[in-house]
Write a structure and sequence with these properties.
14 helices, mainly alpha, 0% strand, globular
Length: 234
């Protein structure tokens, strides 16, 4: 597929490419991973990434792909968008339209964590009621912990406070996002590991069953020999 200047033509080509490579087997497989999508072609992530490499960076195309509503098109949008052109309004709108954890996590992990507004959205979204917007806050925090090599410890310590506040949210995709963020922050460096373990220990001792699960599960990972060995090398 050759990239053309007109976004409307490009999105048609991209959707046609995805449709040709979709399969019922892959569509049926989404449910096994807890991914619910109203519109899905059934294209493996490797195929989506292949198309993204051919397209390169195209902000206008990313917007059009997202607006198509197709599951794979929205994943593709996260790979081809230009983080320097992503606005606060776009981030909020896309977050409100997350319909499953797969799109939520991919957008945060591949795009939103490179947007200058990322830290602001962690704070804003952590207090939202919508399940996938709130998950987005912690998926974004986890992604920043994994990818942001320049930021100091202070924002991550503030992130730990947000994690502790949200740890009683019993909704499956929120609690797993909170747990992911806690583990990711704690694996960033030795100082943050100690801070994250303190939070995990408090949560593990909580009377709230969700908080206990988050704390105990994170504590096992953060205190593991493998994590300690990695941190000792940094």
């Amino acid at each position: 597929m050759t990239k053309v200047a007109a976004a409307a033509v490009s999105v048609e080509e991209a959707l046609a490419w995805l449709e040709r490579r979709g399969s019922k087997r892959e569509r049926d497989g989404l449910a096994r991973y807890g991914i619910v999508a109203k519109k899905a072609y059934g294209v493996p992530i490797a195929g989506i990434q292949q198309l993204a490499r051919r397209i390169g960076t195209d902000h206008d195309l990313a917007l059009a792909l997202w607006d198509s509503g197709w599951h794979e098109a929205r994943l593709l949008a996260s790979f081809v968008d230009d983080p320097s052109r992503v606005t606060s309004a776009q981030m909020d709108r896309w977050a409100r339209e997350f319909e499953n954890w797969g799109v939520c996590d991919t957008v945060c992990f591949k795009l939103f964590d490179r947007v200058p507004l990322a830290w602001r959205k962690v704070t804003q979204w952590s207090g939202r009621r919508d399940e996938f917007v709130k998950r987005g806050a912690f998926a974004l925090l986890a992604s920043l912990a994994l990818h942001d090599k320049e930021t100091g410890d202070a924002p991550f310590r503030r992130g730990l406070a947000l994690i502790e506040q949200a740890a009683t949210d019993e909704r499956n995709f929120v609690k797993k996002g909170v747990n992911w963020a806690l583990r990711a922050v704690g694996e960033r460096n030795t100082a943050l590991n100690a801070a994250a373990r303190e939070v995990a220990e408090r949560l593990a001792a909580s009377d709230d069953p969700t908080a206990r699960w988050v704390g105990k599960d994170a504590l096992r990972a953060l205190a593991s020999p493998a994590v300690r060995k990695r941190l000792a090398k940094r």
